[in-house]
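Lab manual, section 2.4: Encoding a predicted structure.

Procedure: take the sequence of the chain (252 residues), apply the prediction step described in section 2.3, and record the output as structure tokens. A sample record is shown.
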Amino acid sequence: MWSGDFRDGPSVSGTAVIVPAAGRGERLGPGTAKALRAINGVPMLVHAVRALSSANSVSVVIVAAPVDGVDEVHRLLSEHGLMDAGAGRASLVVVAGGETRQDSVARAMLALPDDVDVVLVHDAARPLVPSALVDAVAAAVRSGADAVVPGIPVTDTVKFVDAAGRVTGTPDRSTLRAIQTPQGFRREVLVAAHAAADPSAPATDDAGLVEALGGTVLVIAGDEEAFKVTRPLDLVLAEAILARRRASGVSS
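Recorded output:
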């Protein structure tokens, strides 16, 4: 069990976001990598990186691309004007990801600048994340939390079932949260969690690795628009949200 104190040492002030984007996303159907699927003609990854890089708290975004698609992703982000850090926008780095999400995050951590002390990890499949949520997660880590995740209340009734499909229990949904990204961590916490992780049993999120070490994870309020695009129907919802944003004059 992890019991380290990561609050000692020199103070630094950079915030980085890692975007694991090497997955194929089979539930969206065959074809290109999920992160490169288009919403209103623009790949999800571009939407996500644009939101992350414009957040006030973020100084660098590191994208973990498919091993055979690093050049393609670099070119794509360049075409959308995201590779050059401009006024009010973070710098961007593209690295080769791994076979699993966990591998991709670990490889991206090797590219973290020395002055980064807070690391956020964000799913490329959450392309419409509001920049305000990104800043809120980073701020919660800087306020003293070792790990922070955004979450929203669960509205459906949830059942425990056994292998035969029989209901074995009903948890109190008031105690449940659907967890989103970005998830935020003190750098040392995330590094320690990945160093202790079992590569044969990859976690579905980085907060789970911190929990496995015995660390405390704080949940803050999430945002409905930070949903994960997993099914074709989610693409329709994302396009509707972008249309509403444009109609109201909000940048997509």
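Check your result against the sample. The longest helix spans residues 232-247.
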